């Protein structure tokens, strides 16, 4: 359903079940006939819980990133745009973030960054990212409640039980990784065993998870057209 979340759940299972089943046997979709020792991940249902009106709607600001050379002496750096809405980040050297007011002061109206100490000499050593006050669009947020069915099929009850337990452990252990990929909450709400529709001699264990995620939707404002005023 949501590609990044699908792929994160698949990655967690493939990593956690690596000693029990080949990674190519863990796939998206529903159980297939005559497939043994497989794990199927299927987003079977979803609900848009909240269309996130009002306070969860945000203006999009135009963002810019500029780099500057350091000479070991200069402390003031003039940005190409002004006024600013806010400074998003400042770093020098690359990878080392600087914080206001300890490391620098920002003149938002004039578009000037003044450091407490001069940055060292170096080519493009200073990076400053900022945005402007005028909105260029709007961000809305759709909150999804997804239902994932993880169906585990194996040739024996013993193998199926091992795969089922390992799947639960993998997803629990990898929750921090899943959060980074957009999963806000993931709960195992039930599990059950049932015969395969395609082959009644095989049984499947099904884990049912509720997954909560928020999807960002961007709506850009069209550019203003030139308005001509004619004398009557």
Annotation keywords:
232 residues, alpha+beta, Alpha-Beta Plaits, 2 domains, eight-stranded mixed sheet, three-stranded antiparallel sheet, 3 helices
Describe the structure.
- The structure is a single chain.
- The protein has 3 helices and 11 strands.
- With 232 residues, the chain is α+β, with helices and mostly antiparallel strands.
- The strands form 2 sheets. Strands 1, 2, 3, 5, 6, 9, 10 and 11 form an 8-stranded mixed sheet that branches. A 3-stranded antiparallel sheet has the order 4-8-7, with no helix packed on it.
- A hairpin with a 4-residue loop joins strand 7 and strand 8.
- The N and C termini lie far apart (58 Å).
* CATH fold naming of the largest domain: Alpha-Beta Plaits
CATH superfamily grouping of the largest domain:
Phage minor tail protein U
Largest sheet: 8 strands, mixed
Low-confidence stretches: none
Proper CATH architecture of the largest domain: 2-Layer Sandwich
Number of helices: 3
Total of domains? 2
Briefly, what is this?
Helix content is 16%, strand content 48%. It is built from 3 helices and 11 strands; from the N terminus they run αβββββββββααββ.
Write the layout of secondary structure elements.
Layout: H1 3-16, E1 26-28, E2 38-50, E3 58-70, E4 76-78, E5 86-91, E6 97-98, E7 104-107, E8 112-115, E9 122-153, H2 157-173, H3 175-180, E10 183-195, E11 203-220
Parallel strand pairs: 1-2
Antiparallel strand pairs: 2-9, 3-9, 4-8, 5-6, 5-9, 7-8, 9-11, 10-11
Helix pairs in contact: 1-2
């Amino acid at each position: 359903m949501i590609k990044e979340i699908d792929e994160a759940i698949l990655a967690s299972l493939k990593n956690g079940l690596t000693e029990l089943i080949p990674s190519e046997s863990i796939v998206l979709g529903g159980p297939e006939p005559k497939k043994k020792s497989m794990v199927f991940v299927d987003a079977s249902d979803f609900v848009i819980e909240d269309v996130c009106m009002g306070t969860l709607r945000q203006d999009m600001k135009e963002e810019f990133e500029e780099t500057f050379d350091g000479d070991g002496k200069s402390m003031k750096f003039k940005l190409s745009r002004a006024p600013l809405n806010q400074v998003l980040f400042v770093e020098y050297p690359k990878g080392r973030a600087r914080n206001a007011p300890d490391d620098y002061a920002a003149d938002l109206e004039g578009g000037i960054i003044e450091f407490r100490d001069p940055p060292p000499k170096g080519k493009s050593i200073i990076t400053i990212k900022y945005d402007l006050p005028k909105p260029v669009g709007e961000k809305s947020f759709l909150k999804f409640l997804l239902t994932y069915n993880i169906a585990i099929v194996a040739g024996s009850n013993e193998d199926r039980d091992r795969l089922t337990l390992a799947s639960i452990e993998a997803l629990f252990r990898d929750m921090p990784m899943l959060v980074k990929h957009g999963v806000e909450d993931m709960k195992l709400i039930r599990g059950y065993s049932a015969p395969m529709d395609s082959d009644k001699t095989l049984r499947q264990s099904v884990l049912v998870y509720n997954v909560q995620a928020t999807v960002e939707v961007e709506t850009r404002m069209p550019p203003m057209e030139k308005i001509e005023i004619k004398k009557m």
